[in-house]
Amino acid sequence: MPEADRKESSSATNKPKSAPQKAMEKLGLLRDIDLALHLPMRYEDETRITPIAEAQGHEGEPVQCEGEVLECRIETRGRRVLLVKLADDSGAELLLRFIHFYPSHQKTMAVGARIRVRGELRHGFFGREMVHPSFKAVVEGAALATALTPVYPASNGLPQAYLRRAVASGLSRADLNELLPAGVVPPTLPALRDALNFLHHPPPQARLMTLEDHSHPAWQRLKFEELLAQQISQMQAQRERALLKAPALKAKRAGMHEQLLAVLPFGLTGAQQRVSEEIAQDLALGQPMHRLLQGDVGSGKTVVAALAAAGAIDAGWQCALMAPTEILAEQHFKKLVGWLEPLGLKVAWLTGSIKGKARQKMLDAAADGSAQLVIGTHAVIEEKVKFAKLGLAIIDEQHRFGVAQRLALRKKLASMDLEPHLLMMSATPIPRTLAMTYFADLAVSTIDELPPGRTPIVTKVFADSKRFNVIEKIRDEVANKAAQVYWVCPLIEESETLDLNNATETHAELSAALDGYVVGLLHGRMTPADKAAVMAEFTAGRISVLVATTVIEVGVDVPNASLMVIEHAERFGLSQLHQLRGRVGRGAVASVCVLLYTGPLSDTGKSRLKAMAETNDGFEIARRDLDIRGPGEFMGARQSGAELLRFADLQEDSVLLQAARRLAPQLLDKHPQAARRQVERWLGSKAEFLKA
């Protein structure tokens, strides 16, 4: 950067930022190309004026009129209302009504001023009128817009007028030169610059339907470019990883892996055996494993992780297992200690609640290598945590961790110029097409078989009006079958916006209704020690009914719990409902999940509850969730906090996706500079997320 530009940039950065500038930064509108790619969500037609006498007004169809202000006054009838009367050359009048207004409104629409207004026309008691139209002062004969006016996605503190100017400026400055070699872009698609100019300022005759459903060739060009950048970056990450070195963790004959299999109180399913072999083959290689282990709730992922850990430890390396909550981490800890300590392995336990000397003891054990397996929460990736020889990192419920956290765990071997192998586990199955696209650089192992003896869960859907009947059913269950029950609430305290019963109120209600039985309470504001104490009481059978928020969502294993009630089920996502339901049906007793909802239900709410009632299959649930939410929301944006695909739809644009997948390796091999610039243009710093 030239010295003069550097000084100008430096002085500019010292100026306090305005509210619109801050809002733009929040939207990620930092570069000219970001502004050029910030596309309208809809358009307004300001290219023609309709005489007031001819303005009819159809519902949802705004019209634009222009005229002279005849009257501007404030009327007070219970509340202040600004009334403006407008007339044009047709002789007809139009009343403008503003319930919310400022002194500047009165100034712009003073008597005698000429203004242009746009809004929905309706026929009121006083004739034609508009309520809260957009308006601006004009000089008679002022030129009309020659293109449709874009309406951009915005946020609080970011007016459309400011955003339009910023986007137009960014679009004019952005480098939109063609980066791709001739013959790469399908011939039916326009040049990138032409496509963007068209989408920001389409001509009046443009077919709005093709713009809104993104089928117009201009949209197709953007989708193709975006998918190509995403596929290049995935493939590049895969190739870079292939060059990295990792410890080769070759299993020993009659080693710890076989010893663990011998002491397990159950046999592996065929699916567990298959994925264990896939993982063992990866670990034996000298390059980092980067594998996702996915399986439905209760499919037995933990034992597969234990076998992988045993293999790594047998080869002389340490293993770390990170879980999103202390409850889940502790459950892993208890299971793995029970399986591995009899084999002579030392397991360390590291969470945020462990302090002082106990914490230091665990840190020392990880650092000197005496702890062969370290289990914990986010605490495992803190800077102070050092490993002597970390060979395998296992992340449970990987979608609950941010990309930066996963990268931090991988860097624990940096001092040895090696990468640890990475095994990520998820009980939220990802449909194959989505896995191939979002995780193109990731091997996927799927446990598609449940262990024998698991009884299907019956799911019933009731309106909240049946709440009393459900509580009576609970009384019968705990009295006659000595069963245990979960009652799940979505909130733990009163909300001004959602009038929902909270966990505390429900606990009091159930305690009164189930006199003589112990009703426990578990919520996110309790200390880890209190949560653990309540969970221990429930696991031991001393609590009959556990009222809980979603802290029991993942991994909690109480075989005697055979009934779950999910209150306000319409407030939960489909995958979350399925995860919650998986907390019952973990024993041999037939289990029931009751979904209580409060109407009226939205179409999405109906679809979710219908799916839950019709199937227990996590992969079918995932498919329906994808249909309901769409791929960007379903994936949680690759858990990075910002969607990597903004324009393309993985299902609708499968033809473009296949073309991008074919082209990506060719560009990397023959045109590496073009490939690099394509990723920079479309993904910027987000490309780093693909390495996690």
Automatic annotation (TrEMBL):
It catalyses: ATP + H2O = ADP + phosphate + H(+); Couples ATP hydrolysis with the unwinding of duplex DNA by translocating in the 3'-5' direction. Residues 1-23 are annotated as: Disordered. Its EC number is 5.6.2.4. It comes from Roseateles albus. Plays a critical role in recombination and DNA repair. Helps process Holliday junction intermediates to mature products by catalyzing branch migration. Has replication fork regression activity, unwinds stalled or blocked replication forks to make a HJ that can be resolved. Has a DNA unwinding activity characteristic of a DNA helicase with 3'-5' polarity. Pfam families: DEAD (PF00270), Helicase_C (PF00271), RecG_dom3_C (PF19833), RecG_wedge (PF17191). The keyword Nucleus does not apply. The gene is recG. SUPFAM superfamilies: Nucleic acid-binding proteins (SSF50249), P-loop containing nucleoside triphosphate hydrolases (SSF52540). Keywords: ATP-binding, DNA damage, DNA recombination, DNA repair, DNA-binding, Helicase, Hydrolase, Isomerase, Nucleotide-binding. Residues 282-447 form the Helicase ATP-binding domain. Belongs to the helicase family. RecG subfamily. The lineage of its organism: Bacteria, Pseudomonadati, Pseudomonadota, Betaproteobacteria, Burkholderiales. NCBIfam families: PRK10917.1-1, PRK10917.1-4, PRK10917.2-2, recG. This is ATP-dependent DNA helicase RecG. Residues 470-627 form the Helicase C-terminal domain. It is an enzyme of class 5 (isomerase). PANTHER family: ATP-DEPENDENT DNA HELICASE HOMOLOG RECG, CHLOROPLASTIC. CDD domains: DEXHc_RecG, RecG_wedge_OBF. GO terms for molecular function: DNA helicase activity; hydrolase activity. InterPro entries: ATP-dep_DNA_helicase_RecG, DEAD/DEAH_box_helicase_dom, Helicase_ATP-bd, Helicase_C-like, NA-bd_OB-fold, P-loop_NTPase, RecG/Mfd, RecG_dom3_C.
